[in-house]
Amino acid sequence: MSTPPPPQWVVDLDSAPASKPKNASLPDPPGYTASMTRKERALSSKKSRVPPTPEEMDTLKMKKAWEVAIAPAKQLPMNAFGMYMTGNSLQIFSIFMVFTLFKTPVMAALGIQRTFAPFETPGTAGRLLGVKVVYILTNLLMLALGIWKVNAMGLLPTTRSDWLAWEGERTWSERAVPKEWL
Amino acid sequence: MRLHAALSLAACLAPVSAIFEDDAYHIDFHYALLGLPKHDATFFQKPYGGSKASLLYSISENQTIGAINPKDGALVWRQHPASEPRGKGHLRAADEQDTIVSAIGNRVTAWSSSDGRLVWETNVDGSTVEDLEILEQEDGITKDEAKDAIVLVSGTNHGVKRLDGKTGRVKWTYEDSSNDTPFQVSTSPTTIYYISLHSSIIGAGSKLKVTSLSPITGKKLDQYTLSSDTEITSRDHIVFAGANTAAPILAWTDKDYKVIKINIIGTKTVASFDTPGKSPIEQVVLHAPGHVNSQPHFLVEYQTYFGHSADVFHVDLKKNSVSKAYSLPELQVRGTFAISTMDANVYFVRVTGDEVSVVSSASHGVLGRWPTARSPALAGAYPVHAASEVVVKSGAVTAARSAVLFSNGQWVLIRNGDIAWTRPEFLAQASSAVWARLPEVEALAAELEVERHQNIVSAYIHRVKRHIQDLEHFPAWAQNLPQRLLGNVVGRPKQTTVDDIQQDTFGFHKLVIVATEKGRLAALDVGARGKVLWNVHLTQFADTVFKYPTLRAHSGYVEVRDPSFEGSLFINSTTGGTASYVNLHLHGPQIAEGQKLVSYTLTDGSLKGALETETQGKTESVWTFVPPSGERIVGYTTRPLKDPVASIGKVLGDRSVLYKYLNPNLVLVTAVSELTCTASIYLLDSASGQLLHTMSHSDVDTSRPIPSTISENWFSYSLTIDSAGSPESRGHQLIVSDLYESPLPDDRGPLGASSNSSTVKPSSAQGDAAKPYVLSQSYQIAAEISHMAVTQTRQGITSRELLITIPSTNSIIGIPRQVIDPRRPIGRDPTPNEQAEGLTRYTPLLPLDSKWHLTHKYEVLGIKDIITSESGIESTSLVFAYGHDIFGTRVAPSFAFDILGKGFNKIQMLLTVAALFVGVLFVAPLVTRKQINSLWTIP
After folding, report:
1. Which regions are flagged for Polar residues bias (chain B) (predicted)?
2. How far apart are CA B72 and CA B413, in angstroms?
């Protein structure tokens, strides 16, 4: 018995109209595969043509990871200049800038795993450790800039006067008063 | 720290601080006092001929001459001539004149009646003025020009002088070569009578000798003696002599006031009258008109212990006889009489505590009567003497005003029975003042002390119990709340009582107890513009004549000491009654556990320190400080008993610390040497007697006062430099010195970080007892300082002000401490670090900025001492100055940073809050609708 021709709806289902939905944000319904545009097709054919080796991939990822690790250091001169320009007075702008100087390194250190997750492969795992250390070091540089700034603003309790309140008056083992006061 | 920099920047601004315009006359008060007015020299007088209104002139018992506006009691002018010897003060004025003439000691002075400016002054060398009269008429003709003054002088040579009314030049002098005691002068239109007391035998009575002189030449015309020696044994028995009427009279009485004898001066007849003999008479006062044209009627007032009565006498000029016209009945209340003339008519005003009545001298019918309103200021007091003015329209007295001195020292003007004003003249010449400590506040302090020494749990339980107990005051507090809130917003004045002082939130209402030289004790509320809460005479408690009472404050009562009696009196601070001896717990300065107490006194020109031993009253001499030979100790100053210090170091611009030398036992001794014209300042540690620092100044005028003060870690004093040594440096100097533990920053000196120290037994490891590092700077100031004090605040965080009294301008000045910082750079501009500290370049001349004057427009006379106290808030210190005048204010040396100023608009703030609330009410539904709509909107 020869198979009967598929019903029309099956044909329709197999060859969906190439119309684009208006709203791209809506997810495609289940079983629907949008047909590729020519450009996409060309691209996919090209990619599939030269699949990179895992080693190449790792080198690429390492390169990217180094870029990420060095990035805070690149911002440093700009930040330092900005800090220098704002002066040592207590103002809302300098306070905000100092606050970000402290916040960014800390947040970066906390989110270090997430930052380097895209570069994490079995091949790069060992080599990424050094990158992460450099990343933390560059962030510490940023922090050091913040501390320098805070110190310049006189907010660090580094001098004797900052601890004066904890120093007590001497007690005297004698008390002398005029006779009339007795 | 930057914060310090910011604070010191604020401190930089402090020198421009001044009294705000809206604070002046609200936070400060001034009693411009005269002193108790003298009866015979208090009168209403028109300041110049043709003037519509008259002023009230008086000379007080302390010889202050003043003119008072009778409308509101304000002082128009006042003169306090500093002349020695003191003696009786006289003040006379003549009709249609623009001067009044005073005589104090050896000076006869004419003042402009309207503004108190000096017109002329004559000095009767070597003698004192016994009496003063103005020659109203000469040969029966009134002079239009300045009227001449007749003065009676006693001393090396007695005599009568006539002084020219324009210049004060002596026109003639009559010298009395006899040994009689000059008594008084009296003038009639044609003759001047000089009355003296002639006592033939010592111990016996005196005869009255009357000498009549020619007004033109001063030659003796006649002389006669009245045999009064049976009655007059002392001057007090002469009741009256004078009256510039056509018939001047001379009245005297015997020792028991049984008989009054009256002589018309110029005749030899003596009329004798019996005094009303119902109850023993204490005093006889004669009131006679002082005008030439007045009818020759006079009134004799009899004061008894319970009441008073009077007789009115008429003089018949033709017959030269005195007759009794009528009697005014005795009243069983104490009162007094005053005399007032209108044209030729004479009126007598009778003033009692309850009413004022006026009778004519011609008949005893009462022409006007006004019941007097009761005033709390006059509770329990009776009139002592009065001066009156009456207005008569068509036979009826329409108005009468009397300036009455009451027995409690209040000088009151009663206008038709209403009290127009009262002046607390009893406060003049205060000898001592203290801040009273009220028992309730002390009780709380004691409770808190208990809590501090318990463990946490029991202290907490104690605290909860205390708060539950406090709840009993809650209903009353809640009841008063709306009223208080309203009062806060509207800011209306209210009467203060002692309760208010206890419930005062800001602690501005503090009680000052003032003792005067006359032995009066009064309590003033400094926060309520010096309202007198109570006022008592100390003779109620001790039967003695007070010379110079001094006070000490204890919790709930004050201790009064006086050189006239041994021991001390204890007066309740809140009521002015005697303190019950059961509740007295005397305690001197609190000493900590294990502390040794040393006391020191200045005796026989040396300062002696003695160790107080366990047994009461036994002391053990520890040290003696004797200045070098030739020097004499003039005084010493100590740190106040309560002198809180917030920070033990001074933070410099580079954030290092200079540690303050904080020794509670510092004593600053000032000594002078008249021979070499030097003044030396010795800083001693009074526990060990060790000399810590000394300074010497040459070319000092040692006769001038050297005021000094010491507070925290600095002291200051002032000197007058004599011109004899170096004319270019003549003037007054103010020297300020700071004491630090070490000259190096961040160094605590030889004692290091050890927390306890002793100057008596310095530990061997630390070497000799640590001496402070002293930094001094001196400034030239424009005027002499008579007294110095320092402001006090609750915790000592606020910067201090040096309060100085300048007697030459009658003002009190508060110099901010930063301005006279001895660390001001000399000869160079301050570095940025120094600028951050608020230091400016040193200038040798310290101009007394007019913004620093705490007294602004007030003229505070004769300030003897300034006392300061903390208030309830840290920024503010209370200041009270006393002496001749009373002055009080409050100062905020670092601005009032913890209280809203007067400029803050409470109503506006409330309105803003209300408007915002209403706005929220309207907007809330709109916002809710919008939020719901946005949820339902299809994207």
Report:
1. 753-766
2. 9
Contact present, B36 and B428 (Cβ < 8 Å): yes
Cβ–Cβ < 8 Å for B265, B295: no
The one-letter amino acid code at B126 reads G
Return the closest-CA partner of residue A65 out of A125, A3, A119. A119
Contacts of A174 in chain B (CB under 8 A): 595-598, 665, 687-688, 758-760
Are the C-beta atoms of B880 and B29 separated by less than 8 Å? no
**What percent of chain B is predicted at pLDDT more than 70?**
89
Peptide bond connecting B85 to the previous residue in cis, omega within 30 degrees of 0: yes
**Which residues, at least 6 apart from A135, have a Cβ–Cβ distance to it below 8 Å?**
A68, A69, A72, A108, A112, A115, A116
In chain A, the residue whose alpha carbon lies closest to the alpha carbon of B649 is: A164
Radius of gyration in angstroms for the set of CA atoms belonging to chain B, rounded to a whole number: 34
Q: How far apart are CA B528 and CA B506, in angstroms?
A: 13
Q: What type of residue is B420?
A: A
Tell me which long-range contacts B489-498 makes (C-beta under 8 A, separation of at least 24): B489/B906, B489/B907, B489/B910, B496/B525, B496/B527, B496/B528, B496/B531, B496/B533, B497/B533, B498/B438, B498/B533, B498/B574
CB distance A173–B655 less than 8 Å?
no
CA distance B500 to B492: 15
Amino acid residing at B347 = Y
Interstrand relation of A171-172 and B756-757 (parallel, antiparallel or unpaired): parallel
- Read off the pLDDT of residues B667-717 as tens digits, 9 standing for 90 and up: 999 999 988 889 999 999 988 888 999 999 988 888 889 999 999 999 999
d(CA B6, CA B12): 10
Distance from CA of B194 to the nearest CA of A (A): 53
The predicted complex's ipTM stands at 0.73
Question: What is the pLDDT of chain B when averaged over all its residues?
Answer: 84
The backbone torsions φ and ψ at residue A146, rounded to the nearest 5 degrees and listed phi first, read -60, -45
Q: From chain B, pick out residues whose CB is under 8 angstroms from the CB of A178.
A: 599-601, 636, 638
Give the type of residue at A30.
P
pLDDT band at B913 (very low <50, low <70, confident <90, very high): very high
High-pLDDT (> 90) share of chain B, %:
28
What span, in angstroms and rounded, lies between the C-alpha atoms of B106 and B90? 11
| In contact, B443 and B504? CB cutoff 8 Å | no
What are the residues facing B802 on neighbouring strands? B790, B815
Chain B closest-CA separation from residue A95 CA (Å): 13
Q: Cβ of A167 and B649 within 8 Å?
A: yes
- One-letter amino acid for residue B33 of the chain: L
Size of interface A-B (CB pairs under 8 A): 128
Strand bridging mode B181-187 / B259-264? unpaired
b/e sequence B418-447, b meaning 16+ C-beta within 10 Å: ebebbbbbbbbbbbbbbbbbbbeeeeeeee
Region for residue B767 given its phi and psi (left: phi exceeds 0; alpha: psi -120 to 50; beta: otherwise): left
Mutate one of A90, A159, A175 to test the B interface: name it (highest B CB count within 10 A).
A175
Q: Which of A89, A160, A176 sits opposite B746 (nearest CB)?
A: A160
The rounded distance, in Å, linking the Cα atoms of A112 and A72 is 13
What residues of chain A lie within 8 A of the CB of B5, using their CB? 154
